[in-house]
Amino acid sequence: MKSLLPQFLLSVPVLLAAACNVFGQDVPLSSETEECLGCHRELHPGLVASWEKSRHSRTTPAAALLKEPLDRRVSSDSISQTLRETVVGCYECHSLRPEQHTDSFDHNGYRINVVVSPDDCATCHSTETAQYGKNIMSHAYANLVDNSLYRDMMGAVNNNYHRSGNDLVKGDTDSRTEYESCLYCHGTRVEVKGLEARETDFGELEFPVLEGWPNQGVGRLNPDGSRGACTSCHSRHDFSIEMARQPYTCSECHKGPDVPAYKVYEVSKHGNIFNSAGKDFNLDNVPWTIGRDFTAPTCAACHASLLASPDRTVVAERTHQFNDRLAWRLFGVPYAHPHPVHADLKKVKNTLNLPLAVEMDGTPVAAYVIDKKEQQARNKRMQAVCASCHSTDWVVEHFHRLDNTIARTNALTHEATKIMMDIWESGYARGLPQGDNIFDEESERIWTSIWLFYANSTRFTSAMAGGGDYGVFADGRFQTTEQVYRLNDYLQLHRQLDAKAP
Amino acid sequence: MKSLLPQFLLSVPVLLAAACNVFGQDVPLSSETEECLGCHRELHPGLVASWEKSRHSRTTPAAALLKEPLDRRVSSDSISQTLRETVVGCYECHSLRPEQHTDSFDHNGYRINVVVSPDDCATCHSTETAQYGKNIMSHAYANLVDNSLYRDMMGAVNNNYHRSGNDLVKGDTDSRTEYESCLYCHGTRVEVKGLEARETDFGELEFPVLEGWPNQGVGRLNPDGSRGACTSCHSRHDFSIEMARQPYTCSECHKGPDVPAYKVYEVSKHGNIFNSAGKDFNLDNVPWTIGRDFTAPTCAACHASLLASPDRTVVAERTHQFNDRLAWRLFGVPYAHPHPVHADLKKVKNTLNLPLAVEMDGTPVAAYVIDKKEQQARNKRMQAVCASCHSTDWVVEHFHRLDNTIARTNALTHEATKIMMDIWESGYARGLPQGDNIFDEESERIWTSIWLFYANSTRFTSAMAGGGDYGVFADGRFQTTEQVYRLNDYLQLHRQLDAKAP
Amino acid sequence: MKSLLPQFLLSVPVLLAAACNVFGQDVPLSSETEECLGCHRELHPGLVASWEKSRHSRTTPAAALLKEPLDRRVSSDSISQTLRETVVGCYECHSLRPEQHTDSFDHNGYRINVVVSPDDCATCHSTETAQYGKNIMSHAYANLVDNSLYRDMMGAVNNNYHRSGNDLVKGDTDSRTEYESCLYCHGTRVEVKGLEARETDFGELEFPVLEGWPNQGVGRLNPDGSRGACTSCHSRHDFSIEMARQPYTCSECHKGPDVPAYKVYEVSKHGNIFNSAGKDFNLDNVPWTIGRDFTAPTCAACHASLLASPDRTVVAERTHQFNDRLAWRLFGVPYAHPHPVHADLKKVKNTLNLPLAVEMDGTPVAAYVIDKKEQQARNKRMQAVCASCHSTDWVVEHFHRLDNTIARTNALTHEATKIMMDIWESGYARGLPQGDNIFDEESERIWTSIWLFYANSTRFTSAMAGGGDYGVFADGRFQTTEQVYRLNDYLQLHRQLDAKAP
Fold first, then answer.
1. A432, B39, B440, C293: which could form a disulfide with C282 (CB 3.0–4.6 Å)?
2. A301 and A245 in contact (C-beta within 8 Å)?
């Protein structure tokens, strides 16, 4: 953040002059972007100010490519001559590939795209875009809405209800609700529904009407057919590496009881050090230098960033396939299992024909998950990060504990699932045997909370080597076992009731 | 915060000299305040140091009034000559309007008030005091304790219990418990109960005995008859605009599951940017300049502050009536509804004669809530803030989503209320039909959690355009529907039990 | 943090040169430590960088002892000549007292201990080590695992389960699970299990195999027989006083629903001020000067630090017996009670022969808890801290409210316990009367949540004079009473069921 300070103190008009001449270097703005700024600085001063604080406003791709490979923030060698010599402004991003962009529209004489997509960013950041395509996040939309079981959960959670006799009957899906609940993080399908005229400060203008917009979800389906939103983590319009490295960014989607990574981090030793000393970290440097730039990892350090030691030895390669250093998918449905082979999960099926990578007893379906060898390779990459600060015995035992916790939380989930099966088979709830939604009754929610919240929280705590209470009293083992008792009590109570004379 | 830095490094004695001569200007202390400081600096070094860091210790009202209207922090033109020419010290605030102050007492030859009230602050900040009087917060005390339904909830939550046969019998109200539970935020009634002598470092002295003190709640009833405590947000004794603009200030009362504004903010994109980049924001500037001073809103930006664009165009006026930009009261009891017309809710009644601004089916009581036109006017003021960074289609669709979520959460609350009515009518709990407390049985708490916690959390998430999980798995739609199942199960179980032979 | 800044910007090699010559002074490194750094800087760059940022890397004990007593950070007068004249490096700590250290091993020609213990730190910090030994935390391991009731809870929470007919049968204890759940905070027993050879970058080397390692819990049993881990709060390898004074450090173990100190702090006025203004606090100064260094307390200010006023009057002595200023043990099992007399609780027994310092009706067992006089002495020490910023009437009434809340939450716990007794005696659960585990059934967990979570949360909110909602809607009185209703409903439902014809 330090480096932003002097510029931050400049007034905006001065800053813009600076944008053309920063530190004695000529940093040219395209005439198109200059024209954009002419109106939009007045209309959206906050938006423009964010961009003015960005690296994009101060650097040309040509200058970015002059850096040593290890220090480089762009990965495409073939940036066009036109784009190379100006800073990365409004027009440079919002005008790319108009023939792919169904959201392209005529705006004061220019073809402008509303939505800038990962395939646009690939112009300069091709490696990151390609990696992200192998990230399970890039498929977060279809992996959710095209999975019949998850679709059932979405319905049970998001739809309206009305009473009919003793029953609660689910109403229809409501897209606006879905956009701001599940799809807020997973991403929406953004579709062009036509054009509409709007009165503006500059007269009547036409704009595309977009369904599913606004949205910044990680698996957004964009109007150019691409997947994802780089802005999920690199917030508009400063697109900063610093912000993406802050744990707050990940917390937007990873704080709930299902994936409590941020909550666990906050009370882990790593989070304690970050919270206590992080204001003096350099979160902007490339490569990110262990010890010199930071002394405790954030999410990005373990899962994404290019890390080097002070002597410029690479400790971990940059990756936007965030499971690259992850052997396990902790967030199991309903069991933790080895990471899926492919980011696109549409083919995944278990022997009950359910769209899950595990059987109902917890056995992974081998065809869809990575094998032991690949798990070891991923662990090895992660362990190289750990070893920057920890001795071998720490690291080895840490991974033993995690494996143990995965096995034990899965075993308890299995016991709970057997109770749930009995409840279904006794007809105290309608679920798998009846071909019914398995998420819309009280007992089903008790069962769901066991694996979706408490077993997951316990595993995240184990995996992040800290945040003790999230594995005990705060959505941890205490709550897991409590819900198992409650589920069993539910079954026993209804059996007892059945046994009574009518 | 930056501006505090140099002064912060000065030792306290040097600072005090500086208080009389800051940046070459003569900044005089009144002789009375000098006398106060003589003892209290030794007695309460922390308290005095906070004041020494304040703007009050460095500025005279006369100097404050010299600023351009847009840059001004005081709003009263008629500050008395006596007060104008010294900095705002102990005596300047603690000696005002003694005839109104029942807490005024003789202290070493001066008349001193213990409690400084909004009506005292109005000496320099009259507009803010007047606005705050129209803020529903200023009536938070009576709106709570004089509402018979809320009073029932307070009793069910705060009172002691003892068992009598199979029943739990509520004991008496305990004022100390109320002072630190509900009234901690809502404010207490502070009353003078006499004088008592106390042995001090400076001999025996007499002090007023105050019931309901200490307290800094937003609707405090003060010994001078005024309402509120500016110190709720502008903490003693630095009374800083910076602190009031920090979201942490609002989080003191707006983090619980009933009004989870801060929790939602934290994991919204706005909160992410604030947490990641906020340490470089200028939170002290007046007017608060979008883009230059900050690039993501805090609570104050949307709800209170005077905002300007870098060219000094006013984007939003300062207001201390915080619903000035709010069309809806999201925190519905038990349904979200348009904001009440008046801050004082004592006349509010629905057709069942319940002290609520809605009927039990969710219809607002027109006489007590603002109309569509006023809702639109408030939305328009808010949208001017949004538009500083967001395009029209974002803003418009955001408000559509919010309206939709209000309608849908209200509809689900209505279904739950119908189940609750059946439970009451079947006698499985005693409530409205029996004229009984509706918050003191298990099924009533299930019902209450639906609208008080989970529907509210879902609405706050919608309203703040982020914090996805607080609308899904973290006190959101997942928990709302879960509690609806649970409530219905409660009813069905007891019906089933009734049907069994005795 | 400010003081770290210049050094932070230096590259590591330059910094090391500086380590020998800081600010023109000769700061010598021992030749042994120089040899350690030779390999370990390359192996563990993050670990070494933390140490390089520490005071240990820049100061010799001799220099530390030159300071005025009030400014001193070391408390041992008798530091050996060998240790006095070099900075405190790897070898200085990891080579102490090898005859006590069962984890001592031969490493490249040196005897090295893996685990540095409080008794090693006592070399320079003897007073702190002695105080910590009287801190209940130092006995957190045995106080937990040797208490038969707590052991039952650990089993019910951590062990595996399998179904047997209608019952859930607890499986065996699993040490890896315990290490990362309860013992993560309480500390493990670290034992040497032999030596193993490992292939390293520097050839094959032998290392001790440690059971219960890694761990940084507060009551860790170390291989040298000592108790505790200074690194719980003074994180490796910068061992900073600043970090220990940050509330984030305490939050690692004190954020769960059982001991929600950090959550309460965060939304208290103190926490608000810290969060808003704390980045300008000087958290490193000794003595910690009220007003000048900080204007709101962190955990350390009230419970541990040496505090002085700007004129160097001591306001509170440094203590590592953190209950030194605490009259009550709020975290009651199952009732809050006066603090235990001894840190080691192994002798504690009530008249039912249960290992608790209270009877089942809440009466403290006089023999094991401090008396009123000692409570008053502790309150007086705490009140001296409060009085730095608050007037007498505030402070006095604050402690009245706390006493009241302790009495009332205990009374409600007593009512709940009577319901639980009825459930046991009716055979709807198996517990005390049956000599059975009292934590492994649904009704028992309802009862447990009342005193373990909600009564505790209510008391912490009271004790910390803020965080209102943690005493009301967020794990507070609302939830306490809700669980009492639920427990009573459980009893009534089963009685009703019993009364039905079979």
1. C293
2. yes
Residue by residue, DSSP assigns C220-281 as PBPTTS-B--GGGTS-TTT--HHHHHSHHHHHTTS-SSSS-HHHHHHTSHHHHHHHHHGGGS
Sequence-distant (≥ 6) Cβ neighbours of residue B25 within 8 angstroms: B63
Looking at residue B332, its pLDDT comes to: 84
Task: Please check the confidence at residue B6 and state whether its pLDDT lies above 50.
Answer: no
* Burial classification of residue C495, based on how many CB atoms lie within 10 Å of its CB (0-12 exposed, 13-18 middle, 19 or more buried): middle
The pLDDT tens digits for C299-325 are 999 999 999 999 999 999 999 999 999
Instruction: Retrieve residue C206's tokens.
Output: 């032998």
What are phi and psi for residue B254, nearest 5 degrees? -120, 50
Given a cut of 70, is residue A18 above it in pLDDT?
A: no
Which residues in A lie closer than 8 A to residue C249 (C-beta atoms)? 272, 276
CA dist., res. C431 & res. B345, Å (int): 50
Cβ proximity of C237 and C54 under 8 Å: yes
Q: Are C6 and A282 in contact (CB under 8 A)?
A: no
Contact B285, B272 (CB under 8 A): no
How far is Cα A480 from Cα A454, in angstroms, rounded to an integer?
5
- The set of residues, in sequence order, having a beta carbon less than 8 Å from that of B366 and lying 6+ positions away, is none
Chain A residues whose beta carbon lies within 8 Å of the beta carbon of residue C258: 469, 473
A185/B292 Cβ within 8 A:
no
The half-sphere exposure of C227 on its side-chain side, counting CA atoms within 13 A, is: 18
φ and ψ of B412, to 5 deg: -70, -40
Residue recorded with tokens 């900073």: C240
Q: What is the pLDDT of residue C442?
A: 98
CA distance C52 to chain A (A): 9
Q: How far is B161 from chain A (nearest CA, A)?
A: 26
Residue B219 and residue B203: Cα distance in Å, rounded? 36
* Predicted pLDDT of residue C482: 98
pTM of the predicted model as reported, rounded to 2 decimal places: 0.94
Cβ atoms of B221 and B190 closer than 8 Å: yes
The residues facing B324 across adjacent strands are none
Flag if A174 and B478 touch (Cβ within 8 Å).
Answer: no
C443: tokens are 């009704």
Measured between beta carbons, which residues in chain A are less than 8 angstroms from residue C256? Answer: 468-470, 472-474
* Sign of the CA dihedral with A331 first, then A337, A343, and A345 last: negative
What is the per-residue pLDDT across B457-470, written as a single tens digit (0 to 9) for each? 999 999 999 878 99
Residues 6+ apart with CB under 8 A from B434: B424
Characterize the bridge pairing of strands B25-26 and B104-107: unpaired
> Region A35-39: what's the mean pLDDT?
96
Q: How far is C-alpha B27 from the geometric centre of its chain's CA atoms?
A: 34
Residue contacts between A and C (CB atoms, under 8 Å)? 187
Q: Residue A1 contacts by C-beta under 8 Å, 6 or more apart in sequence?
A: A242, A279, A283, A284, B277, B279, B280
Three-state secondary structure string covering A397-457? HHHHHHHHHHHHHHHHHHHHHHHHHHHHHCCCCCCHHHCCCCCCCHHHHHHHHHHHHHHHH
pLDDT tens per residue across span B368-398: 999 999 999 999 999 999 999 999 999 999 9
Give Cα separations from B374 to B319, B326, B338 (angstroms). Answer: 16, 10, 9
- CA A13, chain centre distance (Å): 36
Chain B partners (3+ C-beta pairs within 8 A): A, C
The per-residue pLDDT for A468 is 80
As a whole number of angstroms, the longest Cα–Cα distance in chain A is: 92
The residue ranges of every structural domain in chain B are: 332-369+390-502
Here the tokens at position C248 are 């984030």
pLDDT value of position B26: 60
Please indicate whether residue A166 or residue A461 has the higher confidence score (pLDDT): A461
- What separation in angstroms does the CA of A14 have from each of A40, A48, B124, C444? 17, 14, 36, 68
